[in-house]
Amino acid sequence: MLSFEILYDQFLSTISSYTLSQMDDEDIKAELFNLAINAISRFKFPKMSLKYSFNEEEYMYYFDENVTQAELTVLLAYMKVAWVEFQISKEQKFDSFYYDNNVRTFSMGNILAQLNRMYENFLADAKDKEYNYGRVNTGGRSRLGDINV
């Protein structure tokens, strides 16, 4: 059984986040778990079951089957998509700091535009990783010619 901790570590090594740096460890784990569940629900047709269970002694979630790095790569890509969706939806991004027309401030619209571009890139990358994942069998060879395997 593979721990979600491996998924969390790989995700945290691919992003830098001010939001996460302001959280304590329990809140970070809860947020990462939510991102992982979101990614699992988006993953279409995994070759291995992505069912998971909770170990109360270790207070950790585990995949019930031996999930490989191929599945983790797709899950990580979808976790990034969910993370950017969360960043875009924060209501603070829509608040204006000043309501005076004479005061020039940095536009939050610029940040939203950048986040939207990042979201589109991450989503395209996740779909590409999932597509490539489906093109090889569990042995790593091309699925061309495999029938219902």
Spell the H/E element sequence. Answer: EHHHEEHH
Give the N-terminus to C-terminus distance in angstroms: 23 Å
Largest sheet: 3 strands, antiparallel
- Domain count, please report it: 1
Sequence stretches where pLDDT stays below 50 over 5 or more residues: none
Quantity of strands, as a count: 3
What is the beta-strand fraction? Answer: 5-15%
User: Which structural class should the secondary elements be placed in?
Assistant: mainly alpha
Cα-based radius of gyration, to the nearest Å: 19 Å
Anisotropy-based shape: flat
Mean pLDDT: 84
Q: Residue share in helices?
A: 40-55%
Widest sheet, order of strands: 1-3-2
What is the tally of helical segments?
5
Task: Please render the helix and strand layout as text.
Blueprint: E1 2-3, H1 4-12, H2 18-21, H3 25-42, E2 52-55, E3 60-63, H4 69-89, H5 108-133
Antiparallel strand pairs: 1-3, 2-3
Helix pairs in contact: 3-4, 4-5
Offer a quick outline of the entry.
By secondary structure, this protein is mainly alpha-helical.
Structure in words:
It is a single chain. The chain has 149 residues and is mostly helical. It has one domain. The chain is 52% helix and 7% strand. It has five helices and three strands; from the N terminus they run E-H-H-H-E-E-H-H. The protein has a three-stranded antiparallel beta sheet. The longest helix is centred in the last third of the chain and has 26 residues, at 108-133. 15% of the residues are buried.
Jot down its keywords:
149 residues, three-stranded antiparallel sheet, 52% helix, mainly alpha, flat
